[in-house]
Design a protein that fits this description.
459 residues, alpha/beta, Aminopeptidase, Glucose Oxidase, domain 1, eight-stranded mixed sheet, 14 helices, elongated
């Protein structure tokens, strides 16, 4: 009886293995490699805890270029090289100071300069504050009411959006354009509520864009924490004549030389067709950029490591590109496309990870209907790994400039509910990233690249 049972179990196991498709078996191998033999987590550990923040033009960015190039070289790729990129160099300077004066009382606030902002005068700025919720509200106020004031942009991320990137997109214009528009109306400075759904004490930086306005209209711009924004608004309602003081010493220098880091496995059948996987190596300077975008970089590196570990040789040339300067200029993505045009390269597919190292949920796809349907048809293969979202959407900033004729662009979509708790803030650190979630993301990326490599794209 026992022998019969054992034989039956063996036959069932053999039938199950035989009945699995080639794609199912390969995805199983990919996930096994990523969850048992990955290097992405120790790579991120070094980037975050040994190197630290990697703002473009900084020493940290230089060290990250050297480190990631060396790690890619250990994988035995066909080619590893650096691609020159001129990047902006903005330095935060001394820690910012901000407080509200109401009568004899002084209330301190956690603030930080927005990236690219000009400094305040050395003695700081002190002025009355006008709270607004939008750029439109600022325009309605007009020059007469705005001139000589500090404008406080206090529009929260909308909690009704389940997709938090939509909440971010609905209010980020006050950070990116607030200083420019307020400066045109004669404001002295702007304070902007942090792009964060959670109430906490971390101010979140991010770029502000002055556009083409003259230097005399450029005014200092700082972010205030969400708790700080709530408190400031409350106090302004109680005492509209209160004055806010802040001081920051940031400075912009001449552009400096940096690099995209590129590693390549040459295609066995179509070496002229290029597939890209990547993230951005630079980060803001407050934390160590573990979620944004150290996670995406090491996941992209891990894709090539997985293929090496399981002995998979892609039909098409596969490149990992660690782009420099996504945060304050996108120079890396633009230069990569410039070089691609110069070399007449044919990119058929690009995949970016720049939404944090959380559990993967799916992919946002920029493609024509035929290719979107083709990729979506692989959904069943991903169901065992809890990947279920195949949606049309924005794939990523760095692969955005790529314009090959028939290219398909995709962005990894992790669970985003906690992403903006850390985005551009001092708490974006290594301890906020879960090892297993990071590895699952790398496996999802490798799986999709394998399927595209095997099945091609539709021209």
């Amino acid at each position: 009886m026992k022998k019969t049972l054992v034989l039956s179990l063996l036959l069932i196991g053999a039938f199950t293995a035989f009945s699995q498709t080639k794609e199912e078996q390969m995805l199983k191998e990919i996930y096994k490699s990523s969850l048992t033999n990955a290097k992405c987590y120790p790579w991120l550990d070094h980037l975050s805890n040994t190197i630290g923040s990697r703002l473009s033009g900084s020493t940290g960015a230089e060290k990250a270029v050297v480190y990631t190039k060396a790690q890619l070289e250990t994988l035995g790729l066909d080619k590893v090289y650096l691609q020159e990129v001129m990047v902006p160099k903005w330095v935060r300077g001394e820690k910012e100071i901000g407080y509200l004066k109401t009568g004899n009382k002084k209330i301190d606030f956690a603030i930080c300069a927005l990236g690219g902002s000009v400094a305040t005068p050395k003695k700081g700025i002190e002025a009355a504050v006008i709270e607004v919720k939008s750029l439109e509200e600022l325009t309605v106020l007009g020059k007469e009411k705005v001139k000589g004031k500090i404008i406080f942009f206090n529009r929260p991320m909308d909690p009704e959006f389940v997709e938090t990137f939509k909440a971010y997109g609905s209010c980020v214009d006050q950070r990116s354009s607030g200083a420019r528009e307020a400066g045109k109306l004669g404001a002295l400075a702007v304070i902007v509520r942090s792009m964060n759904l959670r109430l906490d004490d971390f101010p979140h930086t991010g770029s502000t864009n002055y556009g083409d306005i003259s230097n005399d209209l450029k005014i200092p711009a700082a972010a205030i924490s969400t708790n700080g924004a709530e408190l400031l608004s409350k106090n302004l309602k109680e005492n509209p004549t209160a004055k806010f003081f802040f001081r920051q010493s940031c400075e912009t220098f001449d552009d400096v030389l940096s690099y995209n880091v590129v590693g390549e496995i040459k295609g066995t059948e179509h070496p002229e067709r290029i597939m890209v996987v990547g993230g951005h190596l630079d980060s803001w300077d407050l934390g160590d950029g573990s979620h944004d975008d150290g996670a995406g970089c090491v996941q992209s590196m891990e894709v090539l490591n997985i293929f090496k570990n399981i002995g998979y040789k892609p039909k098409n040339t596969l490149r990992v590109v660690l782009f420099m300067n996504e945060e304050n200029g996108v120079r890396g993505g633009i230069e990569y496309e410039n070089q691609s045009n110069k070399n007449n390269e044919n990119h058929i597919f690009a995949l970016e990870s720049d939404s944090g190292g959380f559990s993967p949920r799916g992919f946002s796809i920029e493609a024509d209907e035929a290719n979107f349907n083709k990729i979506s048809s692989w959904g069943k293969l991903f169901e065992p790994y809890l990947i279920h979202r195949f949606v049309r959407g924005f794939p990523g900033v760095d692969i955005g400039p790529l314009q090959s004729k028939h290219i398909v662009k995709v962005g990894l979509q992790p669970d985003s509910q906690r992403y903006f708790d850390y985005h551009h803030a001092a708490n974006d650190t290594f301890d906020a990233v879960n090892k297993r979630e990071l590895e699952l993301g790398a496996a999802a990326m490798a799986s999709l690249i394998y399927l595209v490599d095997q099945n091609g794209t539709i021209k």
